[in-house]
Amino acid sequence: MNLKSLFAVLITGVLFGFGLALSTMIKPEVVLSFLRFQDFGLLCVLGGAATVTAICYQLAPRFLRKPFFAASFGRHAAAMNSQTIGGAALFGIGWGISGVCPGPAIAGLGAGNWPLLIAIGGMIAGAYFQGWLASRGTAAPLNSGRVAAR
Amino acid sequence: MLETFFPNGIAHYLLGGILIGSAVSLAFVTTGLVTGMSTVFSSTWSYFSKLTYFHEPRFISSRQWRLVLALGLILGAWLWANILGHGEAVHTRVQWWQLLIGGLIGGFGARMSNGCTSGHGICGLASLQVPSLLAVVTFLTSAILTAHLVLHFGGL
């Protein structure tokens, strides 16, 4: 990936992290208070973000032939299957226990919320276990990923 | 009525959400990338693990920028803490076991579902994907039920 794109991704992260901090999503207490119907602010964060993004996702491909620094627009590919739904149910259980999801867990570190490292450790382990399960039974392809990346 | 549902005000939630949406839009317009956050937890494993799953092209081809995105998140929140947060560190009082178990189950589930609150909730809904809508309804439901249950087990 070219440097211009990486820089754009970095700025994206900075804005994203600033937004998560400003909206107090980096405090698990605030997320839990939404899940317990005490403060519905999270819906404004999610709704505001999804609305702005939806406008961009719908309009950009219509007005631009391609992204500024890349060849084509990507697409979020969600499959309709038991993995997507079952995984979401599990994700919700974890989110409901901790009040922490991946973005705020990472961003929170920037604001010095060190206990979130425990949640990040859990996520790293959980993601490994998921990859381990997904790798079982699959014949080892000749390191296809690495070949494709070259 | 507004104070019943939003005891802490509404402006910072809306502004934060719009900022997050602008961030995801910036990535899309400049690079065409769809920037969900949970995938970094799988793609980064490709640097350390030989498991075949982590070496799928979608992880190998995105592992570099996903780490840059994560670095940006930290920088962004750091900027907020030093500009608007008066340099005071944010500390959670949620119990360590909640963070650990929640992180473990949540990390596993998000990767199994191939998306979290940002991947399905923001990017998926914004691209009008029905599976993402179902995923969002599912994880909101299970999270609400779980968060109420946790109170009965001594959680915060």
Protein model, in words:
The complex is a heterodimer of chains A (150) and B (156). With 150 residues, chain A is mainly α. Chain A has one domain. Helices cover 69% and strands 0% of the residues of chain A. Chain A is built from seven helices and no strands. The longest helix of chain A has 23 residues, at 41-63. Chain A starts with a helix and ends with a helix. With 156 residues, chain B is an all-alpha fold. Chain B has a domain at 92-156. Helix content of chain B is 65%, strand content 0%. Chain B contains eight helices and no strands. In chain B, α7 (119-126) packs antiparallel against α8 (130-150). The longest helix of chain B is centred in the first third of the chain and has 21 residues, at 11-31. The mean pLDDT of chain B is 95.
Question: What's the gist of this structure?
Answer:
The complex is a heterodimer of chains A (150) and B (156). By secondary structure, chain A is an all-alpha fold. Chain A contains seven helices and no strands.
Strand content of chain B: under 5%
Which structural class matches the secondary elements of chain B? Answer: mainly alpha
Sum up the overall morphology of chain B in one term.
globular
Largest sheet of chain A: none
C-alpha-based Rg of chain B, rounded: 18 Å
Oligomeric assembly? heterodimer
**Low-confidence blocks of residues of chain A:** 139-150
Low-confidence stretches of chain B: none
How many DSSP helices of chain B? Answer: 8
Fraction of residues in β-strands of chain A: under 5%
Sheet with the most strands of chain B? Answer: none
Topology:
The complex is a heterodimer of chains A (about 150) and B (about 160).
Chain A: H1 3-22, H2 28-35, H3 41-63, H4 82-98, H5 102-110, H6 116-135, H7 144-149
Chain B: H1 2-5, H2 11-31, H3 40-43, H4 57-60, H5 63-83, H6 96-113, H7 119-126, H8 130-150
